[in-house]
Amino acid sequence: MATKKVTITLPEEVLEYIKDRVDARGVSAYVTEAVEERIAMHKLAELSAMLEEEFGPYSEEAYDAVLDRITEMDAWHDAMRVGEYARPEAEEVVPEAPQERAA
């Protein structure tokens, strides 16, 4: 990604907070990451507004159903990590020799 040098003004406390956590060259990366996160939040808000305009506001029941489904998926993934859903050992399959092609 191409970059361009700009001048910004930050409150001293904010700049000191950043500098305490990164080296001198990391200030730009820190600020860039913060701005990118803010842009992502704006995009999500725009998407949410667009979806609400097209489909109407979500209901509490639908919201609760989504949270329940996410909880179920998290539990499944956790079980997969600890091997609860491990596949049984497959029988050894001996591949057949490739067939010769007719010329």
Please tell me about this protein's structure:
This protein is an all-alpha fold and 103 residues long. Helix content is 61%, strand content 0%. It has helices spanning 12-21, 26-55, 60-82. The mean pLDDT is 86.
Supply the key terms.
single chain, 103 residues, mainly alpha, 0% strand, extended
Beta-strand residue percentage? under 5%
Number of helices: 3
Q: Any idea what the radius of gyration is?
A: 27 Å
Please summarize the sheet with the most strands.
none
What do the pLDDT scores average to? 86
Q: In terms of structural class, how would the helical and strand content be classed?
A: mainly alpha
Number of strands: 0
* Residues in helix, %: 55-70%
Intertermini distance: 54 Å
| Shape estimate | extended
**What string, H for helix and E for strand, traces the elements in order?**
HHH
Detail the poorly predicted runs: none
